[in-house]
């Protein structure tokens, strides 16, 4: 792991080189655009919860442990499975007692760079997020006191917590800090798209390149799905049918937040079906159909949203591009 001061040094050394390289790449627009999609070199960890290897290992163990749920049958990984983009493949999530959550499980990819979590952004940090699934009756339905006692009775956990948190022991906050540290390491793998961004022209087909041009141009996707992880980190009403779930409005009570949900990153998107906060769209074709349709007329509709009009070739190109944001399993 690279320490922050070494990172500064690295950036200081590389910056002039990068500028030189950029000047030499006379292509102009495409090179400039590609630069906006370059992956960051290191993971940002907060000062309040710095990385250690032992902490991440403890977090990983907790993440995959069904004992975190009341009935010891559901772990974080039940709803966030690596093989399917850290989601669960269900329309909406299923928790303790088979209860249906009202929303679709989100991906955990690249969250080290996110500062508004959950579909409505009601929690700012990975540390503070852990409490929600742990205690929600339709997720893990756990009693925190019972959980800490259960973990303390396990000598492996008792030892690991004593090593990682010598002064604090087993508490909700230390459980959360360990899990959050593991989660920050859940990063999308380097994809064909990344290799192209780094200059390998052969990494993308001509069709996928045309798709990227549509994505950042005429189709307007990059108005919201921007940057290397394909999200602006903001909340938008994209015109899905209205339901009881008013999204960000629920806690902000701002009219403009009605039906606004977090822009998901698009890495690993081909394996993350079904789509949207309510899991209502079964395929990427259906997603494109949505963006091509007439949106309901309501004042909360995002200003960045416009109806797209693509012919068949263009649709295929856009889909080919989206597929390059993943690697084979
Ligand atoms: C029963 C299924 C289920 C379980 C178990 C579960 N989650 Fe989730 N997870 C969800 C759903 C559904 C959402 C979206 C909830 C919302 O927006 O209200 C979500 C959202 C998240 C997010 C926010 C992602 C983002 O982009 O903002 C994080 C982080 C997360 N879960 C981590 C965890 C951790 C850590 C655990 C274990 C302690 C866990 N989840 C257990 C279903 C689950
Ligand atoms: C106005 C901002 C905006 C624009 C423009 C936009 N999106 Fe989105 N996109 C979002 C938001 C917000 C969501 C989540 C909406 C929800 O669940 O209610 C989303 C969801 C998605 C999803 C589902 C992701 C998931 O995890 O379920 C895909 C795929 C997607 N968009 C692709 C595209 C493509 C392709 C385009 C261009 C044709 C596009 N988007 C244009 C904001 C936008």
Describe the structure.
This protein has 14 helices and two strands; from the N terminus they run αααααααααααβαβαα. It folds into two domains: 53-183, Cytochrome Bc1 Complex, Chain D, domain 2 (Orthogonal Bundle); 192-323, Cytochrome c-like domain (Cytochrome Bc1 Complex, Chain D, domain 2, Orthogonal Bundle). It has 329 residues and is mainly α. A two-stranded antiparallel ribbon has the order 1-2. The model is unreliable at 22-26 (pLDDT under 50). Helices cover 38% and strands 1% of the residues. One heme C binds next to α4, α5 and α6.
What order do the helices and strands come in, and which of them pair?
Blueprint: H1 4-24, H2 29-35, H3 53-63, H4 76-79, H5 126-129, H6 131-135, H7 144-152, H8 155-164, H9 172-183, H10 192-197, H11 206-216, E1 235-236, H12 249-252, E2 261-262, H13 284-291, H14 312-323
Antiparallel strand pairs: 1-2
Helix pairs in contact: 3-9, 11-14
Features:
2 domains; two-stranded antiparallel ribbon; 38% helix; binds heme C; single chain; Cytochrome Bc1 Complex, Chain D, domain 2; 329 residues; mainly alpha; 2 strands; 1% strand
Radius of gyration using CA atoms only: 21 Å
Mean pLDDT score:
92
CATH architecture of the largest domain: Orthogonal Bundle
- The CATH class assignment of the largest domain is Mainly Alpha
What is the quaternary state of this protein?
A: single chain
Count every helix, treating DSSP H or I runs of 4 or more residues as helices.
Answer: 14
CA-based shape: globular
Count of DSSP E strands?
2
Query: Main β-sheet, in a few words?
Result: 2 strands, antiparallel
Low-confidence stretches: 22-26
Distance between the termini: 25 Å
Number of domains: 2
Adjacency order of strands in the biggest sheet? 1-2
Bound small-molecule species: heme C
Structural class: mainly alpha
CATH superfamily of the largest domain: Cytochrome c-like domain
CATH topology annotation of the largest domain: Cytochrome Bc1 Complex, Chain D, domain 2
Order of helices and strands: HHHHHHHHHHHEHEHH
Proportion of strand residues: under 5%
Roughly how much helix do the residues carry, as a percent range? 25-40%
């Amino acid at each position: 792991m690279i320490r922050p001061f070494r990172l500064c040094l690295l950036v200081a050394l590389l910056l002039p080189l990068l500028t030189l390289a950029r000047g030499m790449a006379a292509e102009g627009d495409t090179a400039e655009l590609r630069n906006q999609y370059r992956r960051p070199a290191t993971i940002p960890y907060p000062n309040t919860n710095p990385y250690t290897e032992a902490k991440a290992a403890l977090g990983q163990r907790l993440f995959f442990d069904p004992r975190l749920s009341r009935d010891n049958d559901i772990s974080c990984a039940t709803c966030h499975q690596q093989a399917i983009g850290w989601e669960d493949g269900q329309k909406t999530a299923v928790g303790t007692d088979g209860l249906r959550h009202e929303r679709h499980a989100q991906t955990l990819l690249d969250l080290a760079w996110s500062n508004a979590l959950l579909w409505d952004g009601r929690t700012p940090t990975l540390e503070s997020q852990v409490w929600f699934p742990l205690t929600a009756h339709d997720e893990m339905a756990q009693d925190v006191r019972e959980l800490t006692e259960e973990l303390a009775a396990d000598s492996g956990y008792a030892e690991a917590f004593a090593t990682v948190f010598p002064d604090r022991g087993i508490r909700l906050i230390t459980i959360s800090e360990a899990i959050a540290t593991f989660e920050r390491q859940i990063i999308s793998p380097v994809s064909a798209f990344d290799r192209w961004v780094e200059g390998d022209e052969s990494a993308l087909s001509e069709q996928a390149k045309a798709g990227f041009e549509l994505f950042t141009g005429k189709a307007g996707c990059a108005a919201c799905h921007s940057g290397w992880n394909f999200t602006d980190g903001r909340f938008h009403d994209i015109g899905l049918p209205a339901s009881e779930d008013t999204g960000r409005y629920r806690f902000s009570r701002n009219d403009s937040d009605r039906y606004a949900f977090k822009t998901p990153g698009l890495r690993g998107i081909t394996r993350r079906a079904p789509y949207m906060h309510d899991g209502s769209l079964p395929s990427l074709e259906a997603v494109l159909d949505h963006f091509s349709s007439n949106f309901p007329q309501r004042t909360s509709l995002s200003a960045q949203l416009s109806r797209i009009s693509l012919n068949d070739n263009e649709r295929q190109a856009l889909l080919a591009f989206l597929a390059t944001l993943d690697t084979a399993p």
